[in-house]
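Standup notes
- DV: blocked on the single-chain target, sequence here:
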Amino acid sequence: MRRSVPILAAALLALTSVASAEPRPGIAMLGEPALAPDFASLPYANPDAPRGGILRQAVTGSFDSVNPFIVKGQAAAGLRAYVFESLLGRNWAEPFSLYGLIAETIDVSDDRQTFTFRLRPEAKFSDGRPITTADVVFSMETLRDKGRPNFKNSYSKITGVKTPDAHTITFTQESGDRELPLIVGLMPILSKAYWEGKDFALTTLDPITGSGPYVIATVKPGETITYRRNPDYWGNNLPLQKGLWNFDEVRFDYYRDANAAFEAFKSGLADIRVEADPVRWNTGYDFPAAKSGKIILEKIPQKTPAPTTGFAFNTRRDIFADPRVREALVMAFDFEWANANLFANAYRRTYGYFGGSELSSEGRAVDEAEKAVLGDALSRLRADFADGTYRLPVSDGSGRDRKVLRKAVELLAEAGWNVTDAGLVNAQGKPFTFTITVQNKDQEKIALHYQRTLETIGIKAAVRVVDSAQFASLQTNYDYDMIPVSWFNSLSPGNEQMLYFGSAGRTTDGTRNYPGIADPAVDAAIQAMLNAKTREDFVAAVRAEDRLLMSGFYIVPFYDAGGQWMARWTHIGRPEAQPLPGFETTTLWRQP
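- DV (later): unblocked, structure below
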């Protein structure tokens, strides 16, 4: 049978792509991996760290599942890190580079449309079964069809899979997504044998089989989960794992709120603590153990973009549909008063979604590379966003800065909302009211401050506190007016940006597009980021995304500390070097 010319041309192109691939022990999103093929350990790990003992952590909230890969339920802490592994593992001292873990090598065609993993023959699950390509295919299909939306978003781009033997698997795509080989490299690998006869889409408390260094030892729903180091862990001698996973047991104990978790740390029931309350950091660590030197207090610098936090407007609600309304409510948030009166002046205001990094649009005018990304969207950008001169409002710190609030009221009037004796109302006399839903006392404190300021311009904002399970449910279904949100971006953002800000998230449950953003220009900027082949093009695409998100006023931006406040008992040791994101729990050890 004679082949058509298009089919033959496609086949030749595929052969050319495959032929250009070479086996590599690692891959970088841009450029080459920093570590040599014969590296001995990660640069922030201590390969001579002592082993043994237990690491106890106090966390707030609750859990009802040990399946972290589905929308249903609230998964316990630590599952992804301790129990499950991927084909490749990260070096957190680089923006985005991966090295062989379950897979010994990765072969990638020049256009990244074809990529092949060669599995290590010694890799196995905790039940002793070897990891084969059948498990990899099962993982991709199961996570794509029954897992969280981010899995479907990525793995749906795979157009072909070939498994010539039990340890070789080749993926093909046609989307042009240059990050996809790395995303598949980070895919959690599930045991096909374990899941046979079980419904992956349902929550479970049965210990799931993984291939990681720990197994699930004990589970008490909503109370505690303990992981025990697997003495037969197959990857103990890998350079990527040297100096990590040093405890015999890792336990997460759940507490009602941050105060209860802090008391657990003070009494020695928890070994480490990441402090989120600046007032507590400045005044709360004066108890005997801290005074006597039994507890080490340190601020760990973070070299990644500042966390993006704030109150998210749910633009799916009509009341927040107008960007002028959203900008006015951004103006009404008095950061200067809150920083002085609630946070002991410990914070700085966070600008944008990649604050403090070269990826930020702050103070930078649109250049030629970014113009190409923005396209027609540039014409609708306000001048102060296009030239980089926009700044978040700065108040006089009084809690009711008339100058700033007057501008907010003027914007609201432009949008059809006017101050009357009955408060802020629209042309139909409908009052401007909404609810801020939070899940703990710290969030409630800042919401009440915001509530008081909004009241001065006629807006009635109720503050509602719900438990962690309720909060997780309303996040999934977008059943809220306004909620506190956090996004943690790296120096190499990628496919997760679609999950955070892509238009599909406006109507798809379970994404992290909490504001309901649906802007084709944002989608295009993210796609340009994924297609970038040079650092210059990549940075331009990310700055374009940041600029568009900031100009859309989708959140009331909060603040950041410029690092992490860490407290640990002296029996917990850590390496001097820390990775780019900051404090890394997997590198810790218990002092002999």
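- Follow-up: The CA atoms of residues 307 and 352 lie 9 Å apart.
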